[in-house]
Amino acid sequence: MTTEPRPARRSAPAPETDPDQQPNTLDECRRCPLWHDATQGVPGAGPTHAPIMMVGEQPGDSEDRAGEPFVGPAGRLLDDALGEAGVTRRAVFVTNAVKHFKWEPRGKRRMHKTPAQREVDACHYWLERELTQIAPSVVVALGATALKALLEDSHARLQEHFGKITRHNGRAILATWHPSYALRAPDPDTRQRVYRDIVRTLAHAKRIAHVDPPDSDDG
Ligand code: SF4
Question: Containing domain of residue 80, as a range?
Answer without folding.
Answer: 35-211
